Each structure stands twice: as structure tokens, then as C-alpha cells.
Amino acid sequence: MFSDIARKFCQVFNLFCCVHVFHAHVGQLHYVVGPSMFPTLNATGDLLFLERFSVRFQKVNVGDIVVACSPENPRVLICKRVLAVEGDSISVLPEPYAQDAAKNVLIPKGHVWLQGDDPYKSRDSRHYGPVPYALLQGKVQLRIWPPHSWKKF
Amino acid sequence: MFPTLNATGDLLFLERFSVRFQKVNVGDIVVACSPENPRVLICKRVLAVEGDSISVLPEPYAQDAAKNVLIPKGHVWLQGDDPYKSRDSRHYGPVPYALLQGKVQLRIWPPHSWKKF
């Protein structure tokens, strides 16, 4: 009887290890809620699949949607679009209304510029500056839920 | 990080609970991802946490050029123990907390300099 329990425990432990390795190194599912990426993502919530290889091998390009640790709160994940990578110069409107207040920002080495698709509701690099690349967790590839809006990004 | 750590190399044991539960304090030695190069890890001392104000000498020689820096929310100030040789927050600014990987607890190698930090 104890050998059965031990065998079951080993099977569960093996499954946990496989899931953990997949989650940490291959891909993750994230439920993303918030208005900052409207209309690309729903404000009420989407289940997204991220893959981690692009971030690990630094293949993130301008226009990709990524999930990252927030520079303001390490317990929070943010989902934004990459508008510029290191070495690029981006023209930023601090307020979406103020067209004549645009300023140029040079993205330093090892950083990216993250911005939400809805500039009026998003708190992003316009507020906290360029984000270090190492904070990126994964690149969004698929929207899985709601099922009628299944989409590959 | 001379003289705390050897320039020729030390084998250190880090623990991750302190970082995960945000129990990193001023004076701790931590290992973090470099904000300048995501493939590089850096080992520095935490001199200030979010909300603190730190007086920074951009150049160790220039005593009269000190400036006060307020550490923003979610960031820490990392600085090496050897200010003349270290490239740290004096150069790239406060570091987001989420970049921290672990807190250094033990030096295991060289064996004659075994130490608990």
C-alpha cells in the first residue's frame, strides 16, 4: 500500500516537474484583464498564450505584444506592445491630446519602450520610462479565450 | 565588490525567498539581471530601497558634486563596494525590483574564506 502511495506521489511529482519546465521555459497561459490594450485585447479579460523563446533569445521586435513584470510593482504583470527597442529614437506624446509637446526619447542599451494600444487608459513607458529587457516574461502568440475571438498575433 | 568578494572569483549561495517575498533590506548583497544587458548577472549591494533618498557621488573623487536621488516605487539602488571599479546604479539609475534574482547568503569557495553574509 505504501509503495502504491509512493508511486502515485512520484507520478504527480513528475507531472509537476514537466508542467513547471514547460511553464518556465516554453510557454505560459495568462489571463489578462484591463483596458490599456483596447481594442486589441478585451478590457474584460482574455486568456493568452505566451511563448518564452522569443524573449530568451532576444527576438522581440517592434510591434510585438509582450507580458512583463511591472517596473513599479514586482508582483504585477503588465501586457503592452513594444514600440521601440534599444538604440531606437521614439517621439513620445506625454499626453495624447498635447500634439505640440512631443519629445524624442533615445532608448538606452538593454531597454525597450512599452506602450498600451489605448493611450488614454494605459500606464506605460510614457510614465515610467524605458523598461529593462530582462523584465520581459513572454511574447503573446495566441488568444485562446473567449473562443469566438481566437486569434494568432 | 572588492574587498567583500574576491576579484578572482567566489562561489556564492543565493536564496530566492527573500527576493520573492520582498524581504530584501538595505545592506544586503544581491544578484540581479543587468539593466544594460539581459544576459549578464550583476552582484551588488542594496544601498537604498523604494521611497528612500540617497546622496550619490557620481565620481568618488568629486565630494562637492553629490546629488540626492529619490528611489521610485518598485526600485532599489545597487552599488558595488568598490566605487572606483563598479558600474552600478550611479551609471544606470535605480534598478526595478523584479530584476533581482537572489540574496547572497554564503560564500562556499574558496574554502578558507567560507563566510555567511
How many domains in all of chain A?
1
Major sheet summary line of chain B: 7 strands, antiparallel
Element order of chain A: H for helix, E for strand: HEEHEEEEEHEEE
The overall pLDDT of chain A, averaged over residues, is 91
Separate helix tally of chain B: 2
Strand content of chain A: 25-35%
Number of contiguous helices of chain A: 3
Any low-confidence stretches of chain A, pLDDT <50, length ≥5? none
Name of the CATH architecture of chain A: Ribbon
Helix content of chain B: under 10%
Computed structural class of chain A: alpha+beta
Return the CATH class of chain A: Mainly Beta
Number of strands of chain B: 9
Biggest beta sheet attributes of chain A: 8 strands, antiparallel
* Proportion of residues in β-strands of chain B: 35-45%
What does the average pLDDT of chain B come to? 90
GO molecular function, one term (chain B): serine-type endopeptidase activity
InterPro entries (chain B): LexA/Signal_pep-like_sf, Mito_IMP1_subunit, Pept_S26A_signal_pept_1, Peptidase_S26
Protein name (chain B): Peptidase S26 domain-containing protein
Keywords (chain B): Hydrolase, Membrane, Mitochondrion, Mitochondrion inner membrane
Quick rundown:
The complex is a heterodimer of chains A (153) and B (117). In chain A, 21% of the residues lie in helices and 34% in strands.
Describe this structure in words.
Chain A: Residues 12-145 form the Peptidase S26 domain. Chain A: InterPro entries: LexA/Signal_pep-like_sf, Mito_IMP1_subunit, Pept_S26A_signal_pept_1, Peptidase_S26. Chain A: It holds the Pfam family Peptidase_S26. Chain A: GO terms for molecular function: serine-type endopeptidase activity. Chain A: The active site is at residues 36, 80. The complex is a heterodimer of chains A (153) and B (117). Chain A has 153 residues and is an alpha+beta fold. In chain A, the strands form two sheets. In chain A, strands 1, 2, 3, 4, 7, 8, 9 and 10 form an eight-stranded antiparallel sheet that branches. In chain A, strands 5-6 form a two-stranded antiparallel ribbon. Chain A has one domain: Ribbon (Umud Fragment, subunit A), CATH 2.10.109. Chain A has three helices and ten strands. Chain A has helices at 2-25, 53-56, 125-128, and strands at residues 27-32, 46-51, 65-69, 77-84, 89-92, 103-106, 111-115, 131-132, 136-145, 151-152. The termini of chain A are far apart. In chain B, strand 8 and strand 9 (115-116) form a beta hairpin. Chain B is built from two helices and nine strands. The two termini of chain B are 13 Å apart. The mean pLDDT of chain B is 90. Chain B is mainly beta and 117 residues long. The radius of gyration of chain B is 14 Å and the shape is globular. Chains A and B meet through strand 8 of A and strand 7 of B.
